[in-house]
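On clarity, I found the account of how folds are encoded harder to follow than it need be. Since the whole study asks how a given chain folds, the encoding of that fold should be made plain. For illustration, here is how one protein appears when written out as sequence plus structure tokens:
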Amino acid sequence: MNKADLISAVAAEAGLSKVDAKKAVEAFLSKKVGKELLEDPEYLRRLEAGMIDTKHVELNDVKNMFHARISVIIFIAATLLIVLFGSIPVMRPVFNGTALDMPAIIEILMLWRKIRGLSSARQSCLFPTRAK
């Protein structure tokens, strides 16, 4: 079976036009293109030449683990609330008889996440400490 036969089979089985089936097949096939990274001679050449930074962050490099954990928890909570409000429209806040749309809810929750993250830090650009 060649690519044209595969496109025809996908179009017939899924009830798609040949153009849409071609797009779907090409999107699927584009996942595997070329060699694996560690077998690619161009990548290996650049790695040897020092053109690629292989530095990575270790867990021990995090200076304030408490604030890092709080930030992750706040991010996960905001993400879960976005999924919840998106999945169950009845739960969205209503003002003047109109429910908030999802872009507004996402903006509010991400702003809340940002403010909570900044206010939990000792020094913040939004909440500077006063000199005594």
User: Anything to note?
Assistant: Confidence is low (pLDDT under 50) at residues 122-132. The chain has five helices and two strands. The beta strands are 94-95, 98-99.
